[in-house]
Write a structure and sequence with these properties.
By secondary structure, this protein is of the alpha+beta class. It folds into two domains: about 1-135, Glutaredoxin; about 140-250, Immunoglobulin-like. It contains six helices and 16 strands. The strands form five sheets. Strands 7, 8, 10, 11, 13 and 14 form a six-stranded antiparallel β-sheet that branches. Helix 1 packs across helix 6. The longest helix has 11 residues, at about 35-45. The chain starts with a helix and ends with a strand. The structure holds copper (II) ion.
Length: about 260
């Protein structure tokens, strides 16, 4: 469950909204609905615990090919590790049975098809990637490029197209890149006949909105380049959105 907490909380907001964590208890005598609810809430209040009669539980176990055996009876709960993480409450029995059971995570899509499995060796990062691979991308990135400018320029700009193709408003929280000390979304404006670049923090992207980044308009600004662009082959940029999480952009420079 600690693993699932890390996976769930490691998902970008848009993916978390579309992911449900279901946990089936094979111990209906001990895991009453009330106790199961408290146990799940200890990890994350969104998690759902499932229990039922012994027959119900066995039916689910069979569907998921989950084998279990009872290995001990009437053990004081203090001796059973995972249960002791939940502070004692009056919904908890003083003793419990101990089961030996397999541990497999089933990643099931909205059609009810199993799309991948998680085992003990599956890292959280891998499982998060498996979940994200089932979801449509929330932000579309197109046609990004950079002009290389003067040879020893300390700053540079990138242009392209960013579209919010999700079904929720989003906010661009920050921009970063390993090639520069500071990276920001800027907008070039003419104010009183002067050309000014304005930092545009927390830019809102409405549903379906496309932001065109082009010269004399919006651009991604790199300040304090760590080396001249003439020595850089690949520019990696990470856009951090409130809902979509990290969205990568890669620009190949041709010299
Ligand atoms: Cu700028």
């Amino acid at each position: 469950m600690g693993y699932l907490k890390k996976v769930y909380e490691g998902l970008p907001a848009y993916a978390r909204k579309k992911t449900k964590i279901l946990f089936v208890s094979i111990d209906p005598e001990y895991d009453t609905p009330q106790h199961l609810k408290e146990f799940m809430a200890h990890f994350n209040k969104d998690f759902i615990g499932i229990t039922g009669s012994r027959e119900d539980v066995d039916q689910i176990a069979e569907l998921f090919q989950m084998k279990y055996t009872k290995i001990a009876e009437d053990i004081p709960v203090e001796f059973v590790d995972y249960r002791s993480v939940v502070k004692k409450s009056n919904t908890q029995n003083a003793t419990t049975n101990v089961y030996n059971h397999g541990v497999v995570l089933y990643l099931i899509d909205t059609e009810g098809d199993v799309r991948s499995l998680g085992y003990t060796g599956t890292t959280e990062k891998e499982f998060i990637a498996n979940i994200l691979s089932l979801l449509p991308k929330p932000i579309e990135i197109e046609d990004f490029y950079m002009n290389q400018g003067a040879k020893n320029a300390r700053s540079a700009a990138a242009y392209g197209k960013i579209t919010n193709i999700s079904n929720a408003e989003d906010v661009l929280i920050s921009v970063s890149s390993p090639i520069a000390k500071r990276v920001e979304l800027h907008q070039t404006k003419v104010v009183d006949n002067f050309v000014k670049m304005i930092h545009t923090p927390n830019k809102v992207f409405e549903i379906g909105e496309t932001l065109m980044l082009k010269p004399m308009s919006y651009h991604i600004m790199f300040m304090g380049l760590k080396k001249p662009l003439s020595e850089v082959e690949t520019v990696d940029i990470s856009l951090k959105f409130k809902n979509a999480g990290n969205v990568p952009i890669r620009i190949k420079l041709e010299h």
